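Trying the structure run again after the queue cleared.
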Amino acid sequence: MTPFEIERLDFTTPAISTWASGDERRTNWPVVYVLDSGGSPDAPSVYVGETVSAVSRIRQHLQNPSKAGFRRVRVVIDETFNKSACLDLESHLIRWLAGDGHYTVLNGNEGIIDARYYERDQYRESFRDIFEQLRADGIFQRSIPEIENSDLFKLSPFKVLTREQAIAVEQIVEAFLADLATGTRSTSVIQGDPGTGKTIVAIFLMKLLADIRDYEDTDEIEQDSLFSEFFVPENRELLKSVRVGLVVPQQSLRDSIKKVFKKTPKVSEDLVLNPFDVGKSSTPFDLLIVDETHRLNRRANQSSGMRNRDFADINARLFGSDDLSKTQLDWIRAQSTHQILLIDEQQGVRPADLPSEVLTAEITDAKRLHRWFPLARQMRVRADADYVGFVRQILRGELRTGDRPDFGEYDLRFFESVAEMQQAIRDRNREVGLARLVAGYAWDWKTRGNGPGFDFELEGTGFVWNRTDKDWINSPGSIDEVGSIHTVQGYDLNYAGVIIGGDLRYDKLTQQVVVDRDAYRDKKGKENLAQLRRPTTDDDLLALIQNIYGVLLTRGILGTYIYVCDSDLRKHFASVLEGD
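Done. Tokens:
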């Protein structure tokens, strides 16, 4: 590739006038440019664009009041650039800037694309060189690997959607706007296995709807975008007073998304809610997008006495009495006109979570009403076969010797030694970052509150549970700890080392995977539903624990390492994974 150039100038009319009289490529050539607010300490912001006439485009920006805070311009010029390459570079820079977190990115997300074009791989190599030059200029603070391993990047609304995801978003937004116009109530369901990008779709929808609501006639909407048709005055008017919320039942994931929204214009961390926020709200919502719907609760013992009182009070306020049959999903319906539910019915991990029959009914209704949007393409696990299906089958004991598919370059390994697995995870973490040990809840949390010692010991090696519930993966010392289901559900890792505890065993006589209730140490994970007079049977508990390990075993983007405590289950896993 021909070397690129980055030309720098002040964001002023005199500077652009002087600059315009030089190289013809400044007026008639595909380029990418970056506007930034300079050393502004209050609200450092950045905007990335592409154009075939840099002079004209920058002059337009100078007339736009929303760009008044910018101070500098950098224009990337390359003789080999074409429209497709510029759109691709623009998308990369926007995503990297959002993940870097130093600047607030003022772009919308409707123009983020991942199109194929001639010699794309070669162009993308040059993008990294452009990144490094911009980093030397102070536009980026961190390296690409550091950025791409961050939650700001992974949970950013500036994501490239797969065609499957983009079509789902387009159809959902189109139907939602039509429902707003006619006053029709609606429920849509997005269904997908782990790693299909359900959370990303939810976050993308929040940002896209906000962009449509707040766009100005002077804004530059990418006309080639799948979503450009929504940026019309009628839709802006429809969304003007619409109240939208993103419900995230899990505390750690909710806190991570709040951090992303805090850095994202037009959305706010206040829009990210827990189910109790929804139930207590005195003002109803027009639209609630519910991530991890399967983690909503039914009437069961909550995490504290206060939460138990809250549940009863919310039921009484919304339904006239503390109706024990009402769930947090009923709160969502009572408090909103429109709902978008993101569901994987095999990711419930506690008895209090919504039962599979409720989730199945939602999916069935959505299919009947043509509001069901399945996501099938695996976006997390880089395997050549159905890895998620394989994991669920082996956990159910449905596979036999040599039934392991070819997962291509995906690094799936079985370890006879937990110490060797721990060392391998440390090695991967040094190489690529985001490699962590995780385990089922098969040991007591003795060190809770940062107490001394270890929580459990295996083969003479001591292990400590996660020291924090919030953002554990990125916390200091997490490489020396073991994460639980409650710290990793909804997150990505590059490598996951999974310890399968004694809560799962293998019965050689029946050749079935069975549960060991006493070995499972999560009291909330196995208690009966007293208010509903429903016991948590061994069959119920087995399904929940299989779901937990199903989640843990599908966190790794590049690889999953497995160690099994129960000797008979270890032999069974080894026979399937290694053909012995």
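The chain has 20 helices and 20 strands. Worth checking whether this holds up in the mutant runs.
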